[in-house]
Write a structure and sequence with these properties.
about 70 residues; mainly alpha; about 0% strand; 2 helices
Amino acid sequence: MIAFGIPNGWEWIIILLVVLLLFGHRLPSMARSLGSGISEFKKGLKDGAERDGKPPADGGVPPAKS
């Protein structure tokens, strides 16, 4: 009888390799999009707090630019 369960050790490595082969060329752009989305979200939170007249939760320190 075949039992299906949570993958262990080698199964995760094989799954990871298959995912990298299928989506490897898209990963950098996806990470870039995720990073810009997070920074836009933080900027929106800061602008909303300024509009409400409350100080930002991070103490008003601007994010570091790279």
